[in-house]
Each structure stands twice: as structure tokens, then as C-alpha cells.
Amino acid sequence: DKEKFVVGLVCCSIMSDYSDDEEKGPTIGTYVGERHPDTGARHGQGKAVLPNGDTYEGEYFEGKRHGEGVYQFRNGCRYEGAYENNKKSGKGTFYYPDGSKYDGEFAEDLRNGFGVYTYPNGDMFEGQWENSKREGEGVYTYADTGVKFNGSWSKGDRTGDGSLDFGFMQYKGTFMDNMPLGKGSFVFNTGYEQSGEYVIQEPKEDDEEGAKPGMRWIGSDISVNNE
What we know:
Blueprint: H1 2-7, E1 30-35, E2 42-49, E3 55-61, E4 64-72, E5 78-84, E6 87-95, E7 101-107, E8 110-118, E9 124-130, E10 133-141, E11 148-154, E12 157-165, E13 169-176, E14 179-188, E15 192-201, E16 214-219, E17 223-224
Antiparallel strand pairs: 1-2, 2-3, 3-4, 4-5, 5-6, 6-7, 7-8, 8-9, 9-10, 10-11, 11-12, 12-13, 13-14, 14-15, 15-16, 15-17
């Protein structure tokens, strides 16, 4: 049935949990490159091997990573892109060992602005980010089915108006905490439409202990879509 079909597809892939924290400690380790003529600080092009085993090769400004550079983490992660005052800032690409990748904007070392995140299973999110979480408008595409969600996000979850496009039909409505909730409609490619709403269905007495509430679709009669 439609509600199980929709609800079964609204869970996103989990983003890689590899740490992208860079070495922020004292400037010890090894460094080969240009230095400031007056202060002797790292300034210009250079390559550093940090105390924790990470490496950085790129531009420096008055002792800090600033400009374009490549930071290789000892855990296999890699960042290629812009820096400002030792932090990822501007356009960049972050690669994870599991095959996932983020290509987009950074600010204050976090994903901020527009970016594309490709997950290990091939799923993809294209849209706005705030403090490394999906925030604002964005499109999430499921690789195995081609289903797309296009709509609003808040703190990483689908929240607000959005649509799920299945190819042969589309669901349009409101979402809360990644689940469809409230009024919406199914629009079919055959030219028909069914309006209704998703309501919370509390667990029944004979359900397993600890069962969580589900969503139930209450639909009206099917009508002709005149759009």
C-alpha cells in the first residue's frame, strides 16, 4: 500500500563518521617550504608533516593554512580546497575512505552553503548545508530506485514542504522528522490524483513491546488532475 511504500523510502543514508578534525596543535613536526622574510613564519607554498601523522601541502599565510591546499588525514580522509586562517573555508572537496565524498562550500571548518554529498551506497544529496547538516532546500536521490525527495530540510531531516518522485507517481505534502505527516496528495502519471493526510498511528495492544508509532494514510476519492 502507498503509505508503506512512501514511509519505507524516507530514511536517508548515514553520512560517514570519519573525523575531519585537523591538527590544531603547536607548529611542531616537519616543514619544507617558503617562509616570511621578516618573521620566519610559514608563508607561501610549503609542505608539512604534522605531529599526529597528517600531512598538508599548499599555501600558508603568516604561519597558518590560507589559500589552496591538500590535507591528508592519517585515517585515509583527504581534503582538497580552500583555507582561511587554518580552517576549511570556501570551495573544497572532502573524500572519505568508504568512498563517500562532499563537494561544495565550507565555512569555519564545516559544510556550510551549497554542496553535493555522495554516500557510500551511491545515494546523493544536492542542496544547502549549515554546520555540516542538511538545512534549507535540497534534493536527495536514492541510487537503487531513482526515487527523489525535493524539499525542505532542518538539522539534517526532512521538515516542511516537499515531494517524493517515484517516476510513475509523485507524493506532495508536509514532512516532520523525515516522515510524511499532515495533508498531502498522490499525483499519478495517468492523470489522476488522491488527496488526503498522513496521521500518526499509535501501536496496538498486540504489537511488540517497545513498538514505535507509525504513519497511516487516510485518502479521499481519486479525482482527475487538471494541472
